[in-house]
C-alpha cells in the first residue's frame, strides 16, 4: 500500500542522528514540562516557536511531536504522585492513580499510565497513517461554505460544549476573534482595532499571542499565589516498575476501551482529551461494579489504564485532523498549526501533495517519540517527579526570560515585548476569572479562515445566505453541532439537579 511505502520512506528521512536527537530532546522536554503543574505541551511548543525558526523544518517539527506526546506522559506523573495533575487531561487517571500511590503501588500506577499512553498513542497514530490521506482527499471537496461551517463548528464546540461555563467559553472566543481582527483588512484596506498605531497595522503576531497567553499569563498567575500553602505532598515510589501478569490482564481491556473512546474525539474539535478520559473513567467504574473484586475508590488499575489510553489516542488522531483538514482540535494542536505556518506549510488537503516528504517523516517521528517516551518513563518516572521540588520562583523567572527572549528574537521589535506584556496580563485575568484559553487560540487561528470563507461564499452566491447550508457537508456539520450543544445543556442541567 502507498501509506506503508510512504511511512517507510519517512522513517528513512527521520533516521538521522540529527533528527533522532531532536525527537529525544522533544520527548524529554515534553515530559519535564508535563510533570510541572500548570504548564503543558502547548506552552512548551509556544516558548520554543520563536527559537526554532532557523532550524530545519523536519527537525523542529519532530521535536514538537516529541513535546506533544511527552507532555501527556508527564501530566500523569504529578497527578499520581502528588494528586496535582500537570494538565486537565490527566485529572481522570489521577483519581485512582493517586489512591494506588497512597497504598504503596505508585510504581505500578506509573507503569500502567506509561504503557496505556504508549498503546493509545500507537494505535491512534497507526490509524492516522492509513486514514489521514483519505481524509485529506475528502477535504478537497470543501468549498468556502464548508470551511466556514467547519470553523463555526470548532468555535461553538470548544466554547460551549467543553467549557464548564458557556458564557466564559464564548467570552474566550470573543477575545480571540477580536485579536484576530487587529490590523489592516486586506480586501478593503480598512484599519481595524489599530487605534492609529503603526505597529498594529500588520496585526499581532500569533507567536506573541500564544507565548503571552500561555506562558506569561501563567507566570503572573503563579506569582499572585505566592505565600499560599501547598497541601500536596510528593509520595515516594517503591516496588517493581512493571506489571504482573494479573495486573496486565486487568489493564489490557481498559487500555483498548480507552483507546476506543479517544480515537474519535481527536477529530472532533472539543478542546482536548478531557471528555474521552472522563468517559473512559466512568465506563471502567461502571463495569467494575459488576465484579466481586471492585477496587474503585481504593486504587483500581483500570481507572488509570483507560483514561491514559484515551488521552493519548485523542492526541494521535488530533494530529491526523491537523494534517489532513488543517483543523486544530486542542490548544496544543493550534500551536502546532502555527509551527507549520512558520515554515511556510499549510496543513490541510494539499499538505500531503506539497510537503508529503516532511509529513510522512513527521508521522514516523511520532512512532519513534512514543518508543523513546516508553523507555524513559517506565524506569525513570520517579526521577521526573523530582522536578516538582524546583522552587517556583526560579522556574517561572526562567520561563519569563525565555518568553521575552524568544519573542524579541522572532521579530526584533520592542513593540512586540510591550504587546506580550499586555496580553500576559490579559492571560492572568482570564485565569483569575476562569476563562478558558483554548477558545482564544482556536479563534485566533481559524478566525481569518472563517472571515475569508464567509466573504467568498457570499460573494460567489450574490449574497444569498442559503449557500451556507446548501451542501450535505454543511448540513451534517451544523446538525452535529446542534446535537452537541443540546447534549451539553442537558448534561449541565442533570449535573445541577444532582448537586441540588
From TrEMBL:
| Residue ranges of domain DUF112 in the record | 20-441
The record ties this protein, via Pfam families, to:
TctA
Signal peptide start and end residues? none
Keywords from the UniProt entry = Membrane, Transmembrane, Transmembrane helix
| Residues that span the membrane, as ranges | 20-49, 61-81, 109-132, 138-158, 165-184, 204-221, 321-340, 360-381, 393-411, 438-455, 467-490
The answer to whether UniProt assigns keyword Amino-acid biosynthesis to this entry is no
What InterPro entries does UniProt report for this protein, alphabetically? DUF112_TM
Q: What is this protein called?
A: Tripartite tricarboxylate transporter permease
Q: Which organism is it from?
A: Epidermidibacterium keratini
User: What taxonomic classification does the UniProt entry list for its organism?
Assistant: Bacteria, Bacillati, Actinomycetota, Actinomycetes, Sporichthyales
